[in-house]
Specification:
The structure is a single chain. By secondary structure, the chain is mainly β. It has helices at about 5-15, 155-160, 210-215, 285-295, 315-325; strands spanning about 20-30, 40-55, 60-75, 75-90, 95-105, 110-120, 125-135, 140-155, 170-185, 185-200, 225-235, 240-250, 255-260, 265-275, 295-305, 310-315. Strand 12 and strand 13 (about 255-260) form a beta hairpin. The chain is elongated.
Length: about 325
Amino acid sequence: RWSLPEKFKNIYDKFSPTGRFSLNVPKFNIATDVDKEKIFDIDGSLKLNSCSFTTEKSVSDLNSAIKMKMLYHHGKGILNAEASINAQTLRVKGKELTDMQAKVNYDPVEKLWSAEEVVADCYDGRFAGGFKFRQIEEGPWHYVVDVAFGNIDLHKLIMKQPDQAGNGYSTGVLGGSAALQGTIGDEQTRIGRCSIVITDMKVGKLSPIANVLQMLKLDEPTDYAFERLFANSYIEKNMLNIERIDLAGTSLAFNGSGWVDIKTKDMNLKLSVRGSRLATVDPSVLQSLAEGLGSAVLRVDVTGSYDNPKVDTKTLPVLERTLEVIIPNEKSE
């Protein structure tokens, strides 16, 4: 670290790299400009082995080969830089990417690092996107992320430990997209959008959705199987604001909105649930509605934390109005 130029020392401190590396520089030319300032022309390669970055190790287990070219001015800094990255393995927030490839360029006018054509394998699926990083003067780094993903095995993605009997993780095929921007290290600047689609989903006992189904006293295998889940949301600071969530299955259908605190994992979701299987919740009321109207409808409020949600249910006003139509009161006659 101590042999690095001051600007690079700041970058080094910010990303706090750990691990092993090997550097090969077949080309290293030094020239001077009209002001007798040194200009370094570098062409080489870098291999990283089991490397991690940031103090929280947001990026870890990086094993990569990097080819790079750089033109560096002793007084002005980087004049030009480009690199190609081929990472065999990489973990981002604990999630594994393999066979990642990317092209990186530096724009000295905008002081912008950009990674384009980023592609990787991810739990039997595919990940693609782009990243941009810009340092504001000598201060913090601003980032812009735009990614898409598809055909990802949901079970492999969320599994933290092997499934146990009656206590498994959800399964399905995940796809979606996300766009995010903010300042590194400052969660208050984070904004973005995210949408996901999960098909052929089976709710595991460790999912918050399982708590909802258990509260509704639903335990048939088909009650835990859903053809499609769709969620559209926007991100502001630590809040994931879910504008719309739809979950469609053979026996049940959910739709609603709410929010989740990304940091604390607290949540507040308001869902409408409909389906003939809901008749088992309160046979005295809902069974007759299911028989007469084809399906029962409930309002479900999910609060508390992601790991320990609290579920409350009540009849939706639409049913109350339906009952008024079926059994008019005196004022309506």
